[in-house]
Amino acid sequence: MSKVDFYILGNAGEDESLRIACRLAEKAWRQGNRVRVQAENSEAVRRLDTLMWTFKQESFVAHEVEGENADWQTLDPAPVILGEADSAVEPPDVLINLSGKVPAMAGRCPRVAEVVAPDRVSKQAGRDRYRQYRDLGFELDSHQV
Fold first, then answer.
1. What is the value of pTM for the model shown?
2. Which fold has domain 3-144?
């Protein structure tokens, strides 16, 4: 069964959830994992794509936006894929969820990271997802960030 880690943010800074997702993706990628970051919408995917280039001055996370460069990505896909829908054919080793709902592929991924912003709406949605995962029998853990 998949392990789900909830990362509860203490700061409400602009794009803080996306920055944490970048850090998690970098760490998982450096450990040799295939990673998918699932965002809420195409605007969040674009902001995430930009942050992957700039969130940390001394590093770069090899990534691509799902569906772009489709002619070559099937031959050699990037280790980190950014997307907004539950459309991945093959589940990643690590799924980082920013979408606000439990992804359909969550049970097929060994690790799931849920990023929860500190605002009231995000916290409530995070609690709802926590209960869903718990009821489905996932191993759960939470971390204050």
1. 0.90
2. Rossmann fold (3.40.50)
